[in-house]
Amino acid sequence: MVNAVSRRLLKELKDYQKERNPDLIELSPIQEDNILVWKAVLRGEAETPYEGGHWTLRIEIPKNYPIQPPKMKFLTKICHPNISFKTGEICLDILKAAWSPAWTLQSACMAIRLLLSNPEPTSPLNCDAANLLRCGDFMGYESLVRMYTQLYAMSQTDNEGSA
Amino acid sequence: MSDSIQLQPTDTSTLDASTESSSHLDHANDRTNAYEYSEYTAEKNQEYLESIRRETAEKTPLVCPTESMDDLLKEYSQGSEVYQQKITKLAEKHHTIRRCRGDGSCFYRAFGFAWFERLLNSKDPTIHQNALETLTYTKNQLLPHWYEGLVYEDMYEEVEGHLKAIVEGKYDSDKLLSIFQDESISNQIVMYLRFVTTAYLKEHFNDYKPFLDCDMEMDEYCSKYVEGMDKEADHIHVLVLTRALKVPVEIAYMSGSNALDQVNFHEFYPEDEASEGVLPLKPLVLLYRPGHYDILYRNE
């Protein structure tokens, strides 16, 4: 007996595999026997300080998904005003109170990717990055982000910080 | 009598301020003991708010067995005279009430249950056929314009499966109640009704934009105020769902205002049918008290 959430997730997996998404290099359950924990790999957008980086995210799906949002966090270290440098927690309204069951795992990942180039420095989880933006030091901000991209997100092996 | 307090139908969002703030304090103390400040995250805050919500909501089944109008009256025995008077008046023409859980989805759940129950009790094959056709239309024509299939297909299958079983006479009223009390099934049905509402709103954007009462694009409005499972239904959502599914609804609006000595009824009839003066399906009757919907049963 396949329950509602498994049925939905299998459909999402099939949907992702059907058409390649160059910005989302990977999206699949981590282990075969647990459909409720997924891994995603985001590709940084060109012409942003995230260009060339690959970030791994861990996705935990609640049993009443898609009524409740999935819990998503970065495993690869990333420097961004709305993402905790230490824990990888993401501050994005659609993953919290503004979640709608019309989202899918793939569209939620793409929303996170969009957040990378559209930071919201007024609600920071990374104050150092946010402060650079808030005082208008864009050059400083970009070099900081680029440095961390090179340091953590560009090596061949997966840099999966603290899980 | 302590039961009557528990049964007070309140959406969690309209929780009594004193209850909320006191439990808030309890939890705040727990938290100081349990975690270091540095471990406190927005995610934990969200989980905690969710747990309060659930605790309050789960005291009432998603859809309850019926109760007499006297039971409803008793709820106000210590309270407002205006309400007592209005309920007495309402009881002249309505014999029974069925409560729904105040979890933000009460309108959709009450609508869904009352609709299915009407179809269960109807022996008219045209009514059954019309209901199935309208439902198929929402899946084949209405929703695909606005959502990708995988978002709503499972929910549609759930709704269609039960509707067919009802039409084929496979369900009785106990079975119907058990379906709506099953959290997973019940919520799938509610979600489908929410998607029908949003798709119809988007489809008729120009007609409804002036009612929105906010300067927002329809997509943003729908994802903020309709799609989410805890978003309560407004007048406009009732209007839209009624039209999209061609199901007439009458709502008894009960407020504490003493301007009227009886409950005010609002009629929501699908356009074409109202103009012809014929309603193949008898209107569903819902009772609205500020922030909450239940189902009413009218005397034959």
Automatic annotation (TrEMBL), chain A:
It comes from the Eukaryota. Residues 4-154 form the UBC core domain. Coiled coil: none annotated. Keywords: Ubl conjugation pathway. The keyword Cell inner membrane does not apply. Transmembrane segments: none annotated. This is Ubiquitin-conjugating enzyme/RWD-like protein.
Automatic annotation (TrEMBL), chain B:
The keyword Cytoplasm does not apply. Coiled coil: none annotated. Residues 1-35 are annotated as: Disordered. GO terms for biological process: protein K48-linked deubiquitination; proteolysis. Transmembrane segments: none annotated. Its EC number is 3.4.19.12. It is an enzyme of class 3 (hydrolase). One of its GO terms (molecular function) is cysteine-type deubiquitinase activity. It catalyses: Thiol-dependent hydrolysis of ester, thioester, amide, peptide and isopeptide bonds formed by the C-terminal Gly of ubiquitin (a 76-residue protein attached to proteins as an intracellular targeting signal). The keyword Nucleus does not apply. InterPro entries: OTU_dom, Papain-like_cys_pep_sf, Peptidase_C65_otubain, Peptidase_C65_otubain_sub1, Peptidase_C65_otubain_sub2. Residues 1-22 have a biased composition (Polar residues). One of its GO terms (cellular component) is nucleus. It holds the Pfam family Peptidase_C65. Keywords: Hydrolase, Protease, Thiol protease, Ubl conjugation pathway. This is ubiquitinyl hydrolase 1. It comes from Gigaspora rosea.
